[in-house]
Design goal:
Two copies of one chain form a homodimer. Chain A is of the alpha/beta class. Chain A contains 13 helices and twelve strands. Helix content of chain A is 42%, strand content 16%. In chain A, the strands form two sheets. Chain A has a six-stranded parallel sheet, sandwiched between helices. In chain A, helix 5 packs across helix 13 and helix 8 packs parallel to helix 9. Chain A starts with 9 loop residues before the first helix and ends in a 16-residue tail after the last strand. At the A-B interface, helix 4, helix 5, strand 2, helix 6 and helix 7 of A face helix 4, helix 5, strand 2, helix 6 and helix 7 of B. Chain A binds a DNA duplex (16 and 16 nucleotides) through helix 2 and helix 4.
DNA sequence: GTGAAAGCGCTAACAA
DNA sequence: TTGTTAGCGCTTTCAC
């Protein structure tokens, strides 16, 4: 039950095949010149012995681990980063790379520590979703020892790396214009912001780039639709479902309660759904809503929620491709990729002009 | 812009500190005896140089990579495995281990390949969610070269490893009994099964252990509630939302349409929600439902869905703990951990006896 | 076409 | 307490 299986190594294969380690290595890694017969023979022996190359030793030799490090906030109520993780892992696998995954829980210290561990493990490159607040010296070239890095989903102040983000602005603006075009005049915006203590209606400083895009989109949309400034009510809320719900309630209890609520992500949507349920409001009937990020749930809920959909799989694939390119050709040139988003119109915004669903 | 930063190594630190590599190593890794002053001095130099130990080289020396391999089906509509991934990564991090994540997409070949890659990377241990069909020789000790392995969420035929599963049977049975106690007599069961071509009402062979638990739970519950056999209608469906929906429609169009539908996972739930919406059925009013696996969406949907909740974080933590234990003490003893589940009663099952919600 | 030998960065006997 | 040295498993000049 407990007898250790001997682990076949290259020397073992070489010995069994009656050749030198060098020849065995050449035969198995397919470099240099080896006699066709020798190669086949070595290969056969290796298979028989169940030889698996020791990637650690290989890495030591040529300084490449074929491993990527992913530092991500893992918020599992947020399908976005789960999809991103999967897409990154899959894209890497296609190129023969494995991925070491670390969570930061939006905590700067955890991010720094994760990067260090990944560097110790000699990852060939890093994909980081930077935490929204604090300073990121640990992501600069000196700290990184030339390890290529790309930023995913957001930019980080002062970090000069390629970034992979989405154009949330355009579709968020479109969402507002769409709602206004259907007759909505009282609009509520529920925006999740890291690092604030409580709900506030005044926009805090230091908001991360991705969220800023959404906020600006809303403003642009409102301007384009020539909405008066006081038509749009804001609630910026910290990361807590309860607090988010109180933000929704504030909105609904205001003198001009919104007929349409825009939520900055799925967590905020969940808060709206909870309060709506409590008050007997039905999405797509007496409350309209658009959120950022599609999900299987959003597709089904209330006949389908209208959403701003971000192409996360594509973004992930491009981020990995760029990282691999930089690993091959470390030219230090960084650029910003911004992928378009899409307003997916479904059933969650009521047509106030006729009292019917736009899509029915 | 492109000047390579020199990567400080142990020799560099030793040289700069004017000591031998051995002393430097002792000072930094804290083994053997070093003079307190020397240690402090070396440490200081190392910090100045920004020295980071090369974990690859360390791994070469003592044959431990401090890395775990996770082979998981990554189905991002299924929050369960995302939560599991996060919990595993976090638990490992707490013990100083990083995790290499691979997806199998429920594909045996991908699983085999992932395990090989992970073995090449010399992971200290493996956590595998085995794909539901096929034979798993690649998970046996000889193939694994003594690398400890634990199975997560399901058992795999012929693999003698510790398993970490949940007692779905008890809570699924309780769910049925609960529904019957509220007056439901026509019960539909929608069960997702891997590897079948189309919807069927007869139970296929070769169903994976976790799903069998749920099926048996339903049967036990029905028996305990002394329901006549024909009260329970089954639909086993493959992995496709459209096909699942047709399964739901078959149920609803049958001579005795169910008033209560039990779904084996969130994907099946989504199918029911889609059809219900299409037909104007409201969950918790004219259609009752219980599903397996809680989620933030289920908590909010329709005032809260009654679910069979599985303790995935706890399960993950225990699986990691056991794997680490086996890495420390490879005794080859395997055991099966089965954690209890819980029927979380919320609002999605109508009380047919009085026509009101049980919890209102 | 094949072998001998050096060495990637580190740690652990063994000496001193 | 500290230094010397060997070697983990592999690849890669350099000779032959």
């Amino acid at each position: 039950m407990n007898e250790p299986v001997s682990v076949p190594t290259l020397v073992g294969v070489a010995a069994a095949a009656g050749v030198s380690r060098a020849t065995a290595s050449r035969a198995l890694s397919g470099y240099g010149r080896v006699g066709a017969k020798t190669a086949a023979h070595v290969q056969k022996i290796a298979d028989e012995l169940g030889y698996i190359p020791n990637q650690t030793a290989q890495a030591m030799r040529h300084g490449r681990t074929k491993t990527l490090g992913l530092v991500i906030i893992s918020n599992f109520t947020n399908a976005y980063f789960d999809r991103a993780t999967k897409a990154i892992v899959d894209a890497a696998a296609e190129s023969g790379f494995q991925v070491l995954v670390s969570n930061t829980a939006e905590n700067l210290g955890a991010e720094r520590e994760a990067v260090t561990h990944l560097l110790e493990k000699q990852v060939d490159g890093l994909i980081v979703v930077p935490v929204p607040i604090g300073s990121h010296e640990h992501l600069l070239t000196p700290a990184l020892r030339n390890t290529p890095i790309v930023l995913f989903d957001r930019k980080a102040d002062g970090v000069n790396a390629s970034t992979f983000t989405t154009d949330d602005l355009t579709s968020c603006a479109a969402a507002i214009e769409y709602a206004v075009s259907l007759g909505h005049r009282d609009i509520g915006c529920l925006v999740r912001v890291a690092g604030i203590p409580a709900v506030t209606s005044v926009q805090p400083d230091g908001i991360i780039s991705s969220i800023m895009g959404r906020i600006n989109g809303i403003k642009h949309g409102a301007a384009a639709a020539t909405l008066p400034a006081n038509s749009v009510q804001w609630r910026f809320v910290p990361a807590s479902l309860e607090v988010a719900q109180s933000g929704v309630e504030q909105l609904l209890d205001s003198p001009h309660p919104p007929t349409f609520i825009f939520t900055s992500n799925n967590d905020m949507l969940l808060a709206v759904l909870a309060v709506a349920q409590k008050r007997g409001l039905v999405i797509g009937q007496n409350l309209s809503i658009v959120t950022v990020d599609d999900s299987p749930w959003a597709q089904v809920l209330g006949g389908g929620l209208t959403v701003v959909a971000r192409p996360v799989e594509k973004l992930a694939a491009e981020a990995v491709a760029e990282l691999l390119r930089q690993i091959e050709h470390p030219d230090g040139i960084s650029h910003d990729v911004v992928l378009p988003t899409e307003l997916l119109i479904r059933q969650s915004v009521v047509d106030l002009r006729h009292g019917i669903h736009p899509a029915s």
